[in-house]
Design a protein that fits this description.
5 strands; single chain; about 190 residues; about 15% strand
Length: about 190
């Protein structure tokens, strides 16, 4: 048959609608910390640090000037494991967890991490030398394509720690001060 006579027709749920539905399913409050702890446990972490940071950080050397609004108060979390490729894949596959067939894992639904959007519009993750920004609203930071809901980069390979130090200050300043940083792989 001729492909030109067929038009796309498929279920489609807006990403922000899906996040809203997840937030309805996950209660506001301590559930966020439990989800982060479950992810740490699944990753075999032996240390989990939470810091409620009330500070505002410099914003002169960010990836994009529009990211300035996220240099303020934040919940910071760190553990002593590094994300594996399947962990990053799970972050972008809502309700399609890479842990589904792993019986030693707690989080298998692929949605728990998104409970953090109860307290944040944007989430950033640093694991090893990888920096990830997740933006459900698909703002056009860093000249991304329209509709792109985040980005990832190897910040060490590209020298971003030196060229954009303000982007990393909220992460590094607080964890370097912590005595537990010795156990955390940054």
């Amino acid at each position: 048959m001729n492909d030109e006579i067929f038009q796309d027709f498929h279920p489609d749920e807006k990403y922000t609608t899906r996040i809203k539905n997840i937030l309805t399913e996950y209660p506001h409050g301590s559930q966020i910390l439990r989800e982060i702890l479950q992810n740490s446990d699944d990753a075999k972490s032996t240390v989990q640090i939470f810091i409620l940071n009330h500070k505002t950080y410099p914003s002169e050397s960010l990836f994009d000037s529009e990211l300035k609004r996220y240099q303020g108060p934040a919940l910071l979390s760190a553990n002593d494991t590094i994300f594996q490729p399947e962990d990053f894949k799970s972050l972008v596959s809502l309700a399609n967890s890479e842990k589904i067939d792993k019986y030693d894992k707690i989080g298998v639904m692929g949605i728990g991490f998104n409970s953090i959007f109860h307290i944040s519009d944007v989430s950033s993750i640093i694991s090893g030398s990888t920096y990830v920004l997740i933006d459900p609203h698909a703002r056009k930071y860093c000249k991304r394509k329209p509709g792109q809901r985040g980005f990832t980069t190897d910040f060490l390979e590209h020298g971003l720690l030196n060229s954009h130090p303000d982007q990393f200050d909220p992460f590094l300043v607080e964890f370097i001060k912590s005595e537990l940083i010795k156990k955390v792989k940054v």
